[in-house]
Amino acid sequence: MFWTVYILKCADGSLYTGITNDLARRIGKHASGTGAKYTRGRGPFSLLYVEDHPAKGFALRREAVIKSLSRAEKFKLVVA
To answer: Which of 20, 39, 65, 75 is most buried (most C-beta within 10 Å)?
Structure first.
């Protein structure tokens, strides 16, 4: 099973970074308002970035690194 780190762009222009082992299901949860508390009421969303990892621990560490980046650095990651 792979774990995915992803970045969403919310309708208000903010960015949300998360992890999941089922990206389609998780995006559906965000869209329905039952995903992360931060994303409730901020849809619709655009999926900007996806990165797969072989284990949850790797994905959690990568998520922490991405969350520590500035907004500009996150957009550089998306474009790279």
So the answer is: 39
